[in-house]
Amino acid sequence: xxxxxxxxxxxxxxxxxxxxxxxxxxxxxxxxxxxxxxxxxxxxxxxxxxxxxxxxxxxxxxxxxxxxxxxxxxxxxxxxxxxxxxxxxxxxxxxxxxxxxxxxxxxxxxxxxxxxxxxxxxxxxxxxxxxxxxxxxxxxxxxxxxxxxxxxxxxxxxxxxxxxxxxxxxxxxxxxxxxxxxxxxxxxxxxxxxxxxxxxxxxxxxxxxxxxxxxxxxxxxxxxxxxxxxxxxxxxxxxxxxxxxxxxxxxxxxxxxxxxxxxxxxxxxxxx
Length: 272
What we know:
Number of strands: 8
Largest sheet: 8 strands, mixed
Order of helices and strands: EEEHEHEHEHHHHHEHEHH
Radius of gyration: 17 Å
Number of helices: 11
CATH architecture: 3-Layer(aba) Sandwich
Shape: globular
């Protein structure tokens, strides 16, 4: 169900709100939107109230702030945490959404029950910063048209590219529909963003999932990130997946997330 939610950082946010139970707020990455989580929402709606939204300044929420910023994304998330329920919530962040989730957790640690990271790190690695800066230069010269085709090889795994052309083509088109100026500003914000100083403060259970071929959050880099979290962490690496695991292996992802949240609800030990 879509609804408009008032918040202090700007105009009303259009929010997707579905399911019942304890809240889970899903935070998308660069160039994405709440639609990233439509399948997950349906898979867990019987046990979780899933809330997602296009980040302020992007997508359907393009006009609710003057310009995109990580701070606005964090503030919107924190206000949604406060509004969802008196109970604690789970934050799930994909890619850039991981940075937003860590920053929001730091502002409301008592209201966050667990953290889930999908292809996410607390800051982009150097090679990705350089890649994204190069993308800004190309978009500034040529516009968004064609940038999606170039990006696909770094987003999806080789098997996805060869066997799921319809999916790849659909997402390529969606990426290119981003407003040029906003997409460039989003890249600049991401390149300069970091939540690394907050990683050592995490005191809730964490699940991190990444693709075996993820170039943005490689298994090595994700494992290194998790070592600095003092609380219990769990990690999954999906073969034949790149950066878009909710598209490349949706059912496996849903099973892993359901297993994790069931363990939270029952205090069972989490197992793969």
